[in-house]
Amino acid sequence: TALPGTQLADGEFQAFTVAVGAVPDVGRLALPVTQTYSDGTVVRWIDEPAAAGQPEPEHPAPVLTLVPAAGGGADAPASSSSTSGTATTALVLSILSLLMSGGLLAGALLRRRATR
Questions:
Q1: φ/ψ of residue 51, rounded to 5
Q2: What is the pTM of this model?
């Protein structure tokens, strides 16, 4: 549900974060959605998604594809070398940014001192 006074204009897109607990071991999970427009029109995206080779229904429910957690266990935390590599890259870039900011600040202070 959107906050009061917020809306998406025609053609706009919004990504939503969804946090869930345990999910059934079904491979796919349809998530029925009701969409209400500012003029009061309601669209129910609740139709069962089409099977392969079948025509798409007018208002299909969004589908969440479920995959096993990394490590094989249902409660295992997801991790991968690409995730840790991304975290390392972010850390290195953050440190470099801090060092550059410090260098710029020091340079500005020295220049200010030199002009006095």
A1: -75, 160
A2: 0.47
